[in-house]
Amino acid sequence: MKSIRLLKVVVFLACFVPLALLGLKAYNGALGANPIEVITHATGDWTLRLLLVTLAITPLRKLTGQPWLIRFRRVIGLFAFFYGILHFLTYIWLDKFFDLHEMVADIAKRRFITVGFTGFVLLIPLAITSTSGWIRRLGGKRWQVLHRLIYFSAIAGVIHYLWLVKADIRKPLEYAAVLALLLGYRLVGSLSAMIAPKPISFPPGRTEVSEG
Amino acid sequence: MLIKNSIDIRSSDITPKDLYLSRRKFLASVTVAGAAVMTGVGLRELASPSTVAEANAKIDNVQKSRFSTTEKITPYKDVTNYNNYYEFSTDKYGPAGLAKDFKTRPWTVTIDGLVKKKQVLDVDSIIKMATPEERIYRHRCVEGWSIVVPWIGLSLNELIKKAEPLGKAKFVQFTTIHDPKQMPGQKGTVLEWPYVEGLRMDEAMHPLALLCFGMYGEVLPNQDGAPLRIVVPWKYGFKSAKAIVKVSFKEEQPINTWNLAAPNEYGFYSNVNPNVDHPRWSQAKERRLGEFFKRPTLMFNGYGDQMASLYNGMDLRKNF
Predict the structure, then answer these.
(1) B319 falls within a domain
(2) Tell me, what's the ipTM?
């Protein structure tokens, strides 16, 4: 119990490391010739990476039989959203300078921005309903269904990356491969559950959330 | 079990290759640094040790050009550390290091196709064809960033005149060297190699088109296209082929590499045009390296006075 709390602090701090490194580089003037591009790419990369880590927790927990891993899912997922906000902010501030008209035109016209924006918006209800209070209010089942939006958000994120690169699609394909693996695991799980005989149902009123 | 015969051991096996190479590099850099400090040109490099920058040989007797802009020149370290040069890497921060040992001598340029004088020229003889000129040009990348560079070179038409193209020649194609051993990016298939680019004859003959072999008063750094490159400042950067080994004169419009990779995104002309967007992003604005706010992109990158007449009557939306 105590060690999990300690580990949570470690995970919390670790999630700040990419931002701290970026800040340190900015302070030292080491962000290179095009700092805004570096910031945009770094925040985007970490949004996607942390989304994939969030999605990796359930498979990892099941495969290793370590149920306590679930307790890190919320914090990592929220950090994915946090980096998503930073990514979005660099776009509207450093790229568009809060030019709302240009932004709306961009979101409507550029498909890589449309899909990226969609992925970001999908995360908002998940961040809002991430508290224990909301899990209780919605009920575990409904909460779970809602939070499957993360699958679509991650898919949108990978497509966003794939559509914005000029010719070298190797990196976005790496993300796509990891995501395919993580979603494939779930697909196989639910398919085999459909085929297998129904398990004994849980007693009613159970709100613990462990699937996802 | 494998027993290695002592005869098989070469001297390069005794000292690991990267170690003796780094030793050589160290000696070379000490020499270069020493020379640079003595002449004072290395101060800029010493001030920012984190970036790769080596002092290159100075170019003498450089003439000023009436085509130069008075805009603020982009810092040398940005122009030498932020390079779209896929032959080395798709990472813009890669070429500075990866091109370090690229060999630019001996180097020849083959002139072929529809010309009277097919020939193979040594790069040094090309450089001596005319008095070198400094041209401070705006340079706009198709990705939406821009720089101002004091290039050194001579008008491309000097070389073309020497080749004596036939009347049938309507286009000229430039080919970049293909050498995967020296250019790690060419081991991959991100683009088709060798890199080719082309211009219409009147574009290539225009005095603004530069055959470039230097910048910032010095010999062109490897990561910027040494020993010889094209600079056509009214077009997006990828039209300015680097490290060229062949100039071919053709009747038909030649293929250009980026057009081959994505025909709907990169046209043959690729004139800088704020009114025609790239299918995936806007070209209305650009980020000048070193500036915080984006600035509006100018038609023909601000070279409309010289260039617009070449495209009279052409639909630039179709001929993007």
Answers:
(1) no
(2) 0.81
